[in-house]
Design goal:
This protein has ten helices and ten strands. The strands form two sheets. Strands 6-7-8-3-9-10 form a six-stranded mixed beta sheet, sandwiched between helices.
Length: 254
């Protein structure tokens, strides 16, 4: 009897240490993501959030452990990585790390063309992603002439043009004004309504509490709490174990 695959993304027992360092940044990290989830990945600086996302997208390769997408173990040859990133998209914390073409249209089309789509198919993907992210009027704009919020939306459009099943976003709401933050969250909502999975690494506890259906807390390169948002923020034992009790006290007073 063939077992049904329910998890879109499985991360099992990942270990990773950056060259030149002795302490691991990931120290046995394990988690699963299901279809249609809204997940907030939280934890203090240095807890391993960004490093985990880089492993989920295949940019970094673990020293030990495995990443599986739709039940299939991921490989690291060029063809496998291209297929991997067709399914799992990553928006970097700093948009400038992601934008490198002369204008917006070229930047958004880079991913689809790299997947082997023809020009017409790529342009269709560009038009759809640009419309979703509200950057259609910026398509001919040089990327260096964009504002911070515009860069964030263009970087997001470039990933969405590859039509991934899972979107990983590393501090995608940081440095955005409140209006732009709401616009990006609305884009996330539209994606989830289409069956996509979103995992947002963030320090924004307000967005975590009001948007996410599930919260994963990392500390010391491990997942130390994982559950429904309401439970994570209301269970005294969880708050104490994750040190969120102190953070929440400051948050409530702000």
């Amino acid at each position: 009897m063939v077992a049904l695959v329910t998890s879109l993304l499985e991360v099992h027992d990942l270990y990773y240490c950056y060259p030149g360092y002795t302490a691991p940044v990931l120290n046995g990290t394990t988690l699963n993501l299901e279809a249609g989830e809204k997940v907030a990945l939280i934890g203090r600086n240095g807890s391993g959030k960004s490093t985990l996302l880089l492993h989920c997208n295949g940019i970094l390769r673990p020293e030990r452990g495995q990443v599986r997408v739709a039940g299939q173990p991921m490989a690291y040859d060029q063809r496998a990585l291209r297929d991997w990133r067709r399914q799992v998209g990553l928006v970097f914390q700093h948009p400038d790390d992601q934008l490198f073409n002369a204008n917006v249209a070229q930047d958004i089309s880079f991913g689809p063309l790299n997947l082997g789509l023809n020009e017409q198919e790529a342009q269709q993907r560009v038009a759809e992603a640009a419309a979703l992210c509200g950057v259609t009027d910026l398509l001919e704009r040089p990327t260096h002439a964009l504002s911070g919020g515009e860069k964030a939306r263009v970087a997001l459009a470039g990933v969405l043009a590859m039509e991934p099943l899972i979107l990983l976003a590393d501090e995608a709401l940081a440095n955005l004004d409140p209006w732009m933050r709401l616009q990006v969250v609305d884009i996330f909502e539209q994606l989830v309504a289409r069956g996509k999975t979103i995992m947002l690494a963030t320090h924004d506890l307000h967005t975590t509490r009001t948007w996410a259906g599930r919260v994963i807390v990392m500390d010391g390169g491990r997942v130390v709490a994982d559950g429904p948002t309401q439970h994570i923020f209301s269970d005294p034992a969880t708050l104490e174990r994750t040190s969120l009790s102190t953070v929440m006290g400051n948050f409530e007073q702000a």
